[in-house]
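Shall we go through a protein fold together, starting from nothing but its sequence? Please make up or recall a protein chain and show it to me in full. Go ahead whenever you are ready, and we will take it from there.
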Amino acid sequence: MAFTLQDLVRNTVVDASTTLMDSGSIEFLTSGSVVVATVFFDADSFGVSSLGTATANAIPNDENTNAGTVTQFRIKNLNGDILSSGSVSLIGAGGDFELSEVDFNIGDRLVVNSLTYTQPAVGA
């Protein structure tokens, strides 16, 4: 039997979750868990949610990557605790986090153009 979360609940969950990301970071890693790039959230990482979705405020680029192929990510809070993680792929390839480039050389730039956080309305 599935259940449905109302927008009030969805927005509360999203806002609480994204507040934990304030001043945190996103690490992009190889399959061997070597960090290729890290980008940092500002103190106010996301806007206020609506209909269960919040959009991240501007995320500065990593202007000096390490070499490697990015296959996974970790979102961390200010204290370095891992809040979430998942797969990375090229745009359209179905990763949890999609980038326009996943193969990096030393000194390349990693850009996060946009990021949204969504709490689905329907659960199992």
